Amino acid sequence: MMAKKDEQKNDQAAAESSRREAAADGGDLGQAEVQANMDEATEQGFIGEEADPTPNENYTVEGVVEGKPTPETDEKAAAAADARSIKLGSDRVSDEK
Length: 97
Hints:
Blueprint (H helix, E strand, L loop, with lengths): L1 H23 L6 H13 L17 H5 L9 H14 L9
């Protein structure tokens, strides 16, 4: 049992040493892959600036009952959301025909 634990500790130490050597040699330890994933998520609008400037409260039952504007119910709000989407580089799909 102790031999297994010692072996695991040695493996962990070797892995950590290898990671440190890679970093010292200019390796990025996976940062490039993480950055690429973050860039893709940001580009899709999941992170960063909100593509829809409409306050979340406008989508609640209370907001709808009070007639608060949303892009789906108000032309001005739709225009603002479209302008924001275009500025952020995303295409807004309209279901109007």
